[in-house]
Amino acid sequence: MLRAIVTSSDSVPSVPGFRFAGVTAGIKKRGGPDLGAILAERPIPTAAVLTTNQVQAAPVLLTRERVSRGRAQLLLVNSGCANACTGAPGMRATVSSCAAAGRAFGVEAEDVLPASTGVIGQLLPVDRVKAALPLLKAGMREDGLADFSRAILTTDKGPKVAGVQLTLERKKVTVVAVAKGAGMIHPNMATTLGFVLTDAKVPPALLRRLLRSATDATFNALTVDGDTSTNDCIIAMASGVSGHAALTSTGRAVSRLEAAIREVLGGVGRMIVADGEGSRHVVQLEVRGLRTDAEARRIAATVATSNLVKTAFFGQDPNWGRLIAAAGRAGVRFDADVAQVHVGDVRIVHRGVAVGPEAERAAHAIMSGPEYSVRLTLGRGPGKARYLTCDLGTDYVKLNADYRS
Amino acid sequence: MLRAIVTSSDSVPSVPGFRFAGVTAGIKKRGGPDLGAILAERPIPTAAVLTTNQVQAAPVLLTRERVSRGRAQLLLVNSGCANACTGAPGMRATVSSCAAAGRAFGVEAEDVLPASTGVIGQLLPVDRVKAALPLLKAGMREDGLADFSRAILTTDKGPKVAGVQLTLERKKVTVVAVAKGAGMIHPNMATTLGFVLTDAKVPPALLRRLLRSATDATFNALTVDGDTSTNDCIIAMASGVSGHAALTSTGRAVSRLEAAIREVLGGVGRMIVADGEGSRHVVQLEVRGLRTDAEARRIAATVATSNLVKTAFFGQDPNWGRLIAAAGRAGVRFDADVAQVHVGDVRIVHRGVAVGPEAERAAHAIMSGPEYSVRLTLGRGPGKARYLTCDLGTDYVKLNADYRS
């Protein structure tokens, strides 16, 4: 049984084996916390899922290289500057700031992983990072996760932390996720970053597999605007101090840890969508009845990113024609004549045609709420998929149209 | 040499061998012209490019079946009702209205092609179509294209007609395109419709090839919102009354006719983007330097449909980070370190990094205009592509968020 220990920032938990800090280094033009660190007691099993964008920021490149060894001890994360599209000077800045942090914290340079989020095309100000390291080190605390969670934010309305406790092999284990992101990318102040921390004892290869599968089910199945960033990164670290024997690759304990990681990543993922730039409605989209899950997922992704669907959500309009038309352009064959559409529990389309005005009025009422589900049933096959999305409102446009300077 | 004879509705040309009309049949709730017809003197070579959406409206299904014979005589087009997602009753309504039009005009039922645009999920009101047929027939005129062009509009700000004259085999030939669409789909009042009419003498198979290639270069390389409709359709008819010998499949005359068709379809396509729901800027996007044209086109389509790119256009912000990041998620390999970005003639990115604030100020000034070009050079390969897009502004959201009832 998973026990949620936090789903907001009100009571941020600690995770045995980790210390945290967040400070103001002067990287953000507008001020506020912008440099954070997560420190383990020694190099520990570490895994990462990194952006698939062809254009990758220097910190992503360096983390990709270093995490291939399956271990790390220190995460150095800044907001306010993505250090993307900054060429060789950008890579030198990332390497140099990680080396300085390693020296300050007594950690091997190779065991320091960087992550950055913020304006693309601006060079990381190494001097400001270096100058803030003594303060960062002095601030490291076991209960410092709240400080860290604030230091990594950009356009977010608030910090995003989710945690659960479970019992593995008769030992209490904690799993916590902390994330930032108010769009899959907010390209001036870019990016989704996510960190999963646990005191479970997990070998690196297994940790990688669990992170990948949980990410596919959560962060890879949500969208604010369909864009992905040069800096997206999710890193998992397992301190192993909970005291149980190291998990092997299968078994009940592994399944339970996998469920816990999915739970916390899903939790912060939902907070990201709810915080989606200007969004007012979180929509749980479910697509069923296709031949395979992959087909269902392809349709779900197309519907969830359709501007016409998302503006209808903004207008609280049960505009099922847009849902069906978006599904129809996903490149997947289905029989529109058997289509059913539900908003919450209200069926508005049956066998491909409208149920009627009364059903649509009931659906409209549901769509005025902050969170609801939409289900498309497009056949009788076993294939299904879920996707989390939000409405596209005028505030999204205003937030993203601001001239940068 | 092509001679443009019209690029707006000010002086709408006639095309020898065709008569046109547009009337008010009462299909649109808000009133106004909503039923149009194009009539040839006899069944003539006809070709169509139809939506690739898996969900296809009844008129698309019927036109697809009938046009496979390569001939038609009468086009019956209505706005205000898409007759999509209307099941078997929808197909019966389309077949029945075409049959009635055939009887009224003395045309074989099989030679009548329907096209519809408007609200998805509402049944075509056959009685209103039938009741309007006498008026429609009485209104048929050689100079009636302006009436027709107005009867097919939905949310468009105005009619869209483009024409050229050229000399083929020493005979004067006219090629005209007429279209509607203020989004690739405006899903309440859905769809892009386009019609190409010429008095050239072209066999059906050649007409199909020319229409397909011109559509790929024009309508398939423009976007307002990335959505495609259940009703999209472009139909070409060639009356052959210009008097030259029938064109064979290759040769200089064929190339010139192909260029003319591309010119007129490109002309009305540009009007559609300029009329894009709430758009203020038409942007000619050019992508160069890839290994193949297909790779360049894939990147161009991704950049042209990115909400973050399009909101930056709305904000007149030369936010090259968004352009590069969108290119990076197209699934095509390129070397970001050699990337160049131009806005108009101003280079803002050189070798993957920013040129500087002065260049961006100059680019910002260009982006305040109604139409400009953006060029991404992503390598040294020969592959290139063009795409026409527009900004995404608050008006787009407002237009599309209105609750239907």
Structural summary, described in words:
Two copies of one chain form a homodimer. The first copy, chain A, is α+β, with helices and mostly antiparallel strands and 405 residues long. Chain A folds into two domains: 3-274, L-amino peptidase D-ALA esterase/amidase (4-Layer Sandwich); 282-401, Ubiquitin-like (UB roll) (Roll). In chain A, 34% of the residues lie in helices and 27% in strands. The first copy, chain A, contains eleven helices and 15 strands. Chain A has helices at residues 58-67, 87-105, 126-139, 145-151, 204-217, 252-274, 293-305, 307-314, 320-328, 357-367, 394-401, and strands at residues 3-6, 18-23, 35-50, 71-81, 112-119, 160-168, 171-180, 193-198, 233-238, 282-290, 340-343, 346-350, 353-354, 371-377, 383-390. In chain A, the strands form two sheets. In chain A, strands 1, 2, 3, 4, 5, 6, 7, 8 and 9 form a nine-stranded mixed sheet that branches. In chain A, strand 8 (193-198), helix 5 and strand 9 (233-238) form a beta-alpha-beta unit. In chain A, helix 5 (204-217) crosses helix 6 and helix 7 crosses helix 9 (320-328). Chain A is globular and about 70 Å long. Chain A starts with a strand and ends with a helix. Chains A and B meet through helix 8, helix 9, strand 13, helix 10 and helix 11 of A and helix 8, helix 9, strand 13, helix 10 and helix 11 of B.
